[in-house]
């Protein structure tokens, strides 16, 4: 006797249910059957409106199970039509799970699973760098997820750190929308723009040499020297490898970085020898997520230096423009598009172009 095609049987019954205007369908999950319909939020849920949910049935995926599931589907549809649906009628232990499904930790786990599938390689690193460390890690995992909890997580990013505050608002708003929490975080944005990179914050080459020469820790000196010489981001200084190529010591940036694989060239070249970059090594840190945080902390708290380490990268871009490096080439070395490069450094590009035009005159 031929084995019954369970999926085909379920599909046929679902078509019948739809034709009879029942708002419920049957779904095969492994060896079990479930009902799927737009249902009111479960007690304790952060959702405010009815949404598609699943009710697990204690029925096997057999012909007999499908027949019973059809009867259950018609009963559920009738309850919904008459406004008589309750979760208790369907064997859902709402009291046991209310605290769990309402907690920050529960929704964080679900949100992580949602974004995980679209993250690039080294998913844990990218989850932490792109989401967790922009406020999600400040949510109390064992406490209820409320608008107030989300706002407090945003406020852990100081308003004077505009870029970090705005990213926290964006990430936490997406998380709130996912969990069905009604909160508007746009009012907490600091309004970061490229114009916030102040010309006075960018150190000159002489100042950079003095700053890096005075770093006593060899590992951190190596990190800051790489950022200055190759225009690297903080995590790239830890992950890159140096290679001698046609008379130049180039930095090869690997795939598991913000913008992926590329090669950066040193400028000015003599800094390679000044700080013995071929022989240096960065300090050992425990995890990827510590790169940016630890780099900023060492610069700000241990060295008491002005601005941020990223200004070394900005100085590299401006230095390339003053030397006449084409925008397409400079942007490739730095790992972003020519448009991003223009948007970020337009004022210095314009100044350089204007100066060169005047000198020709």
TrEMBL record:
Key words of the record = DNA recombination
Tyr recombinase domain ranges (all copies) = 197-359
Q: What is this protein called?
A: Tyr recombinase domain-containing protein
Q: Does the keyword DNA-binding apply?
A: no
- The yes or no answer to whether the keyword Transferase is present is no
Q: Which domain of life is it from?
A: Bacteria
